[in-house]
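To the team - fructose -6-phosphate complex, inputs and output below.
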Amino acid sequence: MIVIKENYDELSKGAAKLIKEAILEKPNLVLGLATGSTPLGTYQELIQMHKESILDFSRIITFNLDEYLGLSANHSQSYHYYMKKNLFGEININPENIHIPDGTAKDVKALCRDYEKAIQEAGGIDLQILGIGSDGHIGFNEPGTSLDSRTHVAKLAESTIRDNSRFFEKKEDVPESAITMGVQTIFEAKKIILLASGENKATAVAKALEGPITSQITASILQRHPNIIVILDEKAASKLKKYG
Ligand code: F6R
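Output:
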């Protein structure tokens, strides 16, 4: 299902409402989370709901999509830091229930294996929140990544390094690799909410939703997902044949 909202604010409210409903229905929801600019408004809404005592996060279990390789949890651009600052530090989540790949792990292969295992042991991801890269990636599954992939170390595409350099002092500071859930790992989530906002996502969104299913646009696999809601703002939807 594709939902088009007038603007980013409405998109964030819509996504937060769906997450709220899922948590109210299952207080020990296994929630897959994304970082980046897109979910920031959604996280703000969730924090607000927590402050108003509408939502209790004490039993939810979270798995983040990815982390930069080489960045420690307290590095200001790490996704550990992002999550603490933009969500976890503001809600009553049990720290033991938080899972984010450790960017400093010595044995990265073991970490990837253990991450998959932890997801399985939690019973699988009930609801996965996703953004989309301007190159059509989900997680850090860049063009060319196998659609069967599981948690692995990924080399960031040049366009992703460019996109993400806005968060770093200079482009050279952006790590070149990340640990990411694989395409198949993401696809196995029972329900997915894909969010995209802004004109710079319009081409990737059109290719992902209306183009062929291909490893060149890893988000295109989502066309096959049985339970997905895509929430777009008007700008991100502007190149869709059906809605643009
Ligand atoms: C983040 C992630 C990425 C982002 C994507 C969009 O955890 O896995 O796939 O969702 O790069 O990023 P923004 O939202 O910053 O445009």
